[in-house]
Each structure stands twice: as C-alpha cells, then as structure tokens.
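ARCHIVE RECORD
Type: protein–small molecule complex
Small molecule: L-homoserine
Source of inputs: curated submission
Record status: active
Notes field left blank by submitter.
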Amino acid sequence: MNSSHSILRVGLAGLGTVGGGVWHRLATQSDLIKQRIGAEIRVVQVADKRMDRARELGVPEKIVADDWRKLTANSDLDVIIELIGGTKQAFELIKEALQSGKHVVTANKALLAERGAELFATAQKHQRHLLFEASVAGGIPIIRALREGLVANRIISIHGIINGTCNYILTRMNEAGLEFKEALAEAKREGYAEADESLDVDGHDTAHKAAVLAALAYGFWIPPEKLHTEGIRTVEKQDILYARKLGYGLKLLAIIKTDKESAVEVRVHPTLVPESHVLASVSGVFNAVLVRGDVVGDTLYYGRGAGGDPTASAVISDLAQIAAHFPQEQKARNVGHESLQSRLKSMDEIVSRYYLRLLVLDRPGVLAEVARVLATRQIGISSVIQPEAHAGETTPLVLMLHDAPESQLQAAVREISQISAVKAPPVHLRVEDFD
Ligand code: HSE
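STRUCTURE (tokenized, with ligand):
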C-alpha cells in the first residue's frame, strides 16, 4: 500500500460479470469506502483480452492490458483481483501474484477447492493475504462470519443453500409444477445457469463451496473426489409433490457437520427440509447458510449468491480488509492447515432419515415384503403414502423412514429393487431435521 497517499493500488484480472461489477461499484462507492476505511482503493491496471468489453465499461484504454501476466509483473500493484475463472491460468496468476509480493482477492471456489492447500501455503510463505469472501454465497459475508464473527465457536454444523441456479430450478418445479428440464431451460433464459450447466445442476459448484466452508470450519481441505456430491438432474416433479404432502420442501443442501468424536461429514445432495424450517422458505436464486456454533447457537445468513453487484460487494469487502485492517507486516492467515483431530466420515457411516419412493405392482403382500426387508435391517417406517390404485396396476409407494445408517439403507434399497413387484429403480432422498 502506498502509505503516503493511503492508496491501495489494485490490478483487476477479468472483466466478466463480476469484474464489471467490481469496476463499476468501486467507481460509484469510492467516496463512501474512503470515508469508512480512510484509504482509497484505486484500480490502476486491468487485464482482459476484450478491449470492446473494457470500452463498454468505461475503463480507460491506457490501463487495459491484454494479458494478466502484465499485472503480476507490475511492481506498482499492492493487490490483484483474480476474476478470470477456470483453474489452470487462475492458479498460475494467483501463485505468481503472491510470489511477486502482492495480496490476492479471488472468487474462484473451484480453484480453492482443488488447490487451496497449495495456494494458502504459498500465501503463507510470502506473507501475503489471499482473501476469498466472494467464493461462497456471493454477497453474503459468510467467510468473514466464520473467520471472525464466530471465531469463539466450535462449529457444530453448517447447512447451506449455496447454488442459486439449483434453488431457482427447485423453486420453479415446486411452485409452477415444471419438470426439471423445463425449469432448467427457464433458468438459462433468465441468465442464471453457468455456461457449463453441469457445474450447477450436478452439484459441483455447491461441492466447491462446501469444501471452502469445511476448510474454514474444520481446518482441512477435503479432496474433491471424497466429497459426496449429488445434483438435482434426477429430481422428479412427483418427488417434490410427495415431499410437500408429507410436510417437506426439497432443497439442494451442502451439509457439513461434526460429531462428539470430531468426525466430520461433508455432503451435497437434494434433501427434504421440514416446511416449517426457515431454510425451506428460501426460494428462487437466493442463498442461505445456517451455522450452528457451540457458543452462539444457530445463526442464519441470507442473500444473493451470484451476480455482478452482490459478488462485487464481497470482492470490495476483501479489498477494504486489506486496505484498512491488514498492515502489510501483519501475519497472513492460512486456511485448512490446522491439525485438528478431525477425520472425514465415509458416506457409509452417516446416519439420516430417508424418503423412499417405489413403483410397485398393486397386489397383496407387496407392502409387507418391502417392510420385511426394511425390518431385517432395523429400519423403521414412520409414514406411508400410496395413492389409491386398481389391483394389478402399478402405483407409487412412498415411505418415510426413521434414522438409519446409509450403508443399511443402501443395502435395503438393493434388496427391495429385486422384489418382483417393484417395477422401477427405487428413488431415495435424505431428510434433514436440524435437531
Ligand atoms: N452459478 C452459481 C449459482 C453462482 O447459481 O449460485 C456462482 O457460484
């Protein structure tokens, strides 16, 4: 930082939706920010290959470079904001920036989830800050809440609706009775889904964000292949309708929890949430994160998880943090390096309640056969729905099950699928009660 003038000199790499939002909001809010933190945040160089995009945003041509390497090579910069996305070039950019003595602000959850350990070690080595408020839940200050506001707490659990596109799709399936494909098409028309829709609907974006939250809460980076990830592509309208009849909403949740033995579970999957619970009422593109700390109890964070302005709000908060609260000599904070006595639970070990939907032939004894399989594995039934059917026809049979270990449930589902009267692969969804 240029201390004589109190100017934080920033390089901005990437002028996409978020980069454009950062440029615009730094311009419109600069006086307010200066008043609040006593320093000016000034973008002195921008990198983007698209000069027309720079012109459209009103970025002076003389500060635009066509290659991010010109930013890392610029010794006048204090901070680089990485908003180019992807994991290859972005990794090189961040590493070079830290090595050349610059702080870094990024929104890149995919990169942090894949290579966070390495990048934070580099930041630590060079004593530079690597901040990432915008990487999870866009404009919601959840990273700062976990690192600062809740620092006195052992985190017991985090439940997050952290992909706006999936929440929009599930909301439209519920409210407008759309099938998944119709709701996805609508989300695309509204400009919500990522260019690669799989990142959203197959749960990967949620998993990346869950890995970042878990690293903050429990001090270790979970290898992406070990993070159980299911998306919403196979969710059917009828499951949303049955869930509603049973008093539940269906949400794509990131679930991060620890038990008394410090075993940690991290999973992403569609989940039945009681309709009376506040997370069930989070609709459309909104995100929400519920954090339970052992000292504070439950805290809830709600807001927009994507888009230029909300994400710019988070990026600028990181810049302000660097400008106002972090003298350069202050020790940079690492993430995911703690040697807590934690271990990651395998999916087989988790315990949950379940929703199970079968398509069965309506003949005497079918329900008894299904119940017998469940009973031999000590899985109790708490509720049953079967629409009235005619003998000899197929009909859905929906069961709500009591707590069971995942391994037992999976084994029961395999056995049930072998029953001759079961005419389609069983569908099972996990239920979260938040107790
Ligand atoms: N595509 C994400 C979402 C936003 O729909 O929430 C970026 O993480």
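CURATOR ANNOTATION: The longest strand covers residues 263-274.
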